[in-house]
Amino acid sequence: MKIQWLKSIIIMGLIVISGMAVAEVTINEKRIFVTNNNTQLKLDDTLVTPTVFAQNTEGMSAEVQIDEDVNADVTLGTASVINAENQVKGPVTNLSPLQVLGQDVAIDTDTIFANSNGIFVLGDLLKVSGTFTNDNVLLAGRIEATTSLVEFKLEGHLSAINGSLLQFGNLIVDTTGVTLRDCGNGPLVGDLVEIKAAVVNNFDINTALNTVSDFECKSGVVILPIGNNSSTIQFSAEGFVTLIIDATHFELNGQMVEFSATTVFENGTLDDLVEGVKVEAEGTFDVASNLLTADKIKFRQVRIRITAPATVADLNANQVTLLNIDGQFSALSRDQDNLIPLLSQDFQLELRGYLDSGGILRVDRIRERGVPDANDIRLRGPVSNLVNPNFEILGVTIDVTGASFFIGSMSVDSATFFASLNNGAEVDINHGIYDDLTNSSMGGEITLEEMSGVGIQKIPESAPEKYNPNSSFIQADGLGAVGKGRIDKFLPPVGAEPMALVASTSISANEGNNVTLDGSNSTGDTLTFAWTQTSGMAVTIAAPNAANTSFTAPQVSAATTLVFDLTVTDAIGSTDTTTVTVTINNTTAPPPPPPPSSSGGGGSLGFFSLLLLAGLISRKKW
């Protein structure tokens, strides 16, 4: 789940400890876990090789289990299991907005595309990994196009119930005769559910999906380490604010979070804590009450806030322009006043959103704020082009003439303000006067945002971090840790023992057909390949030293077995061998049976011949 902005540089270290090859996997950019030959790597719950995992999981959401060597804040340790998961696997069912298996899919600059340029047509088969908001919008971290699927899959929130017909976004699922696992007395609207179903060719989203093979109600954000007996444990969670409960409580992707006057806010303020915003909460988790008490709440993107005049021409279905700043709409944008796609008249509009890694403003929320007024604008964002006493925010020149200065809630003079200011700091301009000709704001209240408490300056981060909604990491002493997050980088171990791996160890083919032997999933450093036939009718292997090769199935009189070995050798001479068994099927039709023989020494044909002979003799006498 995966909003990010301005990517930071990650240097992945590869080391060898006690002869065992190890590498590192980076989760959410700040959590770096060692992997080794004992780490189980899974893709949608199926064990895969390090090479396959490295090639197919960047950007995906994953569940991670970390061994007992994990540190207190779960940023270092050895990963024992990494399971990368797709949340949706199915056909494209709508283009604008993009929907896959009836689910809205939001794409931003940081979405990774595999086997695709990001342009789709109806019916395209996609695998999408990311995270769902409570509105069933899937924020995509990775989208992979494919030509076939083994199954349809959906992990999302239940939006409506009508007897055995359950609705998820625009998808209706018929659960008649299906066992609803781990759902207690039955699923409820808002529950997180995982569904698997047989593939339906040319699936029509207007009909119910009635091929469900598995239905499971899932837990929310928190995963507890196996064997935990602690009542209170350290906890970190990232996600969408799905509900504001009261002045001190909110829900983070369904997880209850409590905060107080001592809670530290970073990259934003309490005023920014609204439904739909994405945050990270760190603190302690009470196992009995299922309550996370937050010591720190961090807004994981640069938060943007703009209140300014808009003309009818400034808004369309895709974007809005305020103060010459373009804000992009997506399926995640909340439009409570039904302003999109066309304004009925000029308005004062309020935008809230964030900058993604490409510097694009993504709109979380748009509201109508009355009559346009250029003499009362608001602009919050990062400082750039700072040359005391001038600076810019998102391209708007800030003229400090007549302005009042604040650090947090504390009034300061101009010198103190600029002494604390640097590029990247987040500043809020309120009640500014906007000049469209110069694209500048003059005067107003200019506030350098703080972390918490009077006079405590917020220190801007030198490099922003990737954001992974619906991520959580929890650690219990002596039990290791478990968590969810985005895979930013994975490299297979260098120096690991080679592994000979084939696409299938058992193949069935008809005589005369071309048979492919596929060893391309083998892992190791600088591999060479050797295919040999060890039993059965002799055949010619087309390319015995290639990862993938083939042969022509021989003609057989009955089902016949051929056996082949694949041996892989790495750069230092280490080898591994695996075996493939190929069954050749006889398909030649048997010859037709002979015609049935006549009975009685010639039957009626013999009798007719005698009559004809008697007639000839009789004519001769005449």
**Count of individual helical segments:** 3
Tell me the overall shape.
Answer: elongated
Radius of gyration: 34 Å
> How large is the share of residues in beta strands?
over 45%
Please give the share of residues in helix: under 10%
The CATH topology assignment of the domain at 506-585 is Immunoglobulin-like
* CATH class value of the domain at 506-585: Mainly Beta
- Average the pLDDT over all residues and give the rounded result: 82
CATH superfamily of the domain at 506-585: Immunoglobulins
CATH architecture type of the domain at 506-585: Sandwich
Question: Which spans have pLDDT < 50 for at least 5 consecutive residues?
Answer: 1-21, 450-470, 599-605, 617-622
Question: How far is it from the N-terminal to the C-terminal residue, by CA?
Answer: 112 Å
List how many beta strands DSSP finds: 48
Largest sheet: 15 strands, mixed
Instruction: Return the structural class.
Output: mainly beta
What does this structure look like?
The protein is mostly beta strands and 622 residues long. The protein has a domain at 506-585: Immunoglobulin-like, CATH 2.60.40.10. The protein is 5% helix and 46% strand. It has a 15-stranded mixed beta sheet that branches. Strands 8-9-10-13-12 form a 5-stranded mixed barrel. A 5-stranded mixed β-barrel has the order 33-34-35-39-38. The longest helix is centred in the C-terminal third of the chain and has 19 residues, at 603-621. It is elongated. 38% of the residues are buried. Residues 1-21, 450-470, 599-605 and 617-622 have low confidence and may be disordered.
